[in-house]
Amino acid sequence: MKAVKEFLGRIRPTKRRLSQLYFALLFNANAKGFVQGNIYRGQSKALCVPGLNCYSCPGAIGACPLGSLQGAFSAGRSTLFYVGGILLLYGVLLGRTVCGWLCPFGLIQELLHKLPTPKLRKNRVTRVLSLLKYVLLAVFVLAIPIAYAFRDEPLPAFCKYICPAGTLEGGLGLLANRVNESYLSMLGPIFTWKFLLLVSVGVGSIFVFRLFCRFLCPLGALLGLFNRVSVFGVRLEPASCVNCGKCVAACELDVRTVGDRECVSCGKCMACCPTGAIRWKRIREKAGRKPEASADRRSIVLRAVTGLLALAVLIGAFCYYSNQEAPAAGGSETGELCPSVSLALLSGGTVEPAAGGSITLINFWGTWCSPCKRELPDFDRIAAEYEGRVRVIAVHTALEAENAQDYAAEHFPQSAILFAVDRPSSPGAATDAFYAALGGRGVYPYTVVLDRNGRIYAKYLSAVDYDTLHGVVEALLRGEEAGPSTTDAPTEHYRVRVTDEQGVPIPEVRVQICADACLSAKTGADGYADFTAAAADYHAAVTVMPEGYTLPTDQTEFPFADGTREVVIVLKRAGDG
Amino acid sequence: MNETYSRFRSVLSWVTSGAFLATGLCLIAACLRISRLGPHPFTPETVRAAVRPIRFLPAVCLALSAAGLILDALLPQAAPKQKRAARRAADQTGARRAVLLPRLALLGLALALLILGVAGDGAAGVIAKAVNVCSECVGLG
Questions:
Q1: How far is B43 from chain A (nearest CA, A)?
Q2: Residue B43 is part of which domain span?
Q3: Are B117 and A443 within 8 A, CB to CB?
Q4: In degrees rounded to 5, what are phi and psi of residue A234?
């Protein structure tokens, strides 16, 4: 029994460890994301969390402060103020207490360091290396993103080339789920490099205490600058200090004095200070206060209440995020018909990507997305080369869509690309619904190629180059129709005729046939609209009523009679009886 | 003597940090100059021409900071700063005030920035990036 008690005493977590674990769970409370393999897309993502926690992690409920800062340089002044304000607030309130008590990536490193191996103690070399994080802050978080922001091309250099938290939480977190199998096609040299870096940091953390935090983390570097003025943290009472140096010797970080820029306020130095000169900072000093029995009781009650409240918040967060609506899973697969929607064009009017009649390239992009912007010139080139034979529709995400028009006008003023926005077509509908309907899972850019019948021929996650686009367009022009299901599934020819009450054909009427999905086309001079589609129970409808006409009855959908592949829709002139 | 040495170490530390900062600023300046070159692809000649006017400055700063670091590593440590802090112990109230003022100023600045950011819908810029998988950030793109 005594041995068990001793063991339990040994493994009993400290307050700091509990805090780290708590915040790691709280910042990743969207547990459903890990199961479903997608990321949370709600409003709480607007808030940067205090700690290095990748916003592409399936569990993340907030934004990464470093990623947001890098993005803010190209997102406009307001975003820069917003992110700068949050970072400054965290700095002034917490300083590097964030690193010691809140950061999930710090927790991972500390747990790795617990493995029983020989450890490398701090020395002069590690002290010099601790300055490296300031170089990374200056170059990768500030200089490169700012320089690229001037070029109107966002580049989160630290996230892209270094951040191991992104690789672990975002990259591996998403790849670990089988539904994201398609992401494997996106892996390239950058992932290899980042994966190697992650492994190196992981292995290094076993031997060196908080390797990444000490030498590489720009967030720690930034917050460390505020350590002296931060509201929370440790401080030294100079009057009580006897300069024994035990505090600095006991600290595993490269501190020179208690509470300097390297100090993460772990509080380890407090235990070894012989005179009790190291204390937590207090907002209001209560000099000469002596501990009393009633104060102890108050403290126990306060701790119990705080613990219960924290637990309630955590459980509440897990419940709240597990009840949030998940993005529609699945979406149309290759070989299936493209869902019929009407998208608003930035230049005015609408476009129906599924209308058929010509090969269509649908590119989902965003002005905040650097790879999207880099590939747009290739789409422009394709649109110009194949004008009249290939439609290129660049669909901007509904978020920040107001920037798209300016960008398109500035960079592609004469382009044949149709710039559209994925806005909800009806009130209350989900934003980016078309993207989700085509199987988009939050990754931009995303390109879908449709054949002449509006069938999905190919999908490309991440950026595509000109050669790939050229190849797929040439293949379609040679007559290779969409995917396996077109060749496997039997197809039929369907005709919809639109006439007036005298039987006179009405041309240029947009009609559609729908079963599980819809196909859309315009009637010709003979009043017929032709469709080639998989055999199914379709019904026809007029999508856009021609001017001066109306339906004679309340019937809006016209089923094909059994055994026939043709339906006639009769319209009456508006105002006639 | 100890005090003089301690001051020397302090100056060395400031010079090294300043040189590091200056190197960073030079790099930012170089990046800005390169960013004004125009569209890709850059040629080595155009990049060289862009950074020529400031080419010595980062090198000098970097050399200075490297020299400072080497000196810092080779020279013996100065007496702990706590000693100096202890001398100031008599005037602790003044020291606390010295911290309180920048703390309040920074807090005010942080709140002002936040208010300006929120008023200008700055959160939209963050959310646009955060709700989509940043394929670059996670190493996929």
A1: 17
A2: 1-88
A3: no
A4: -100, 155
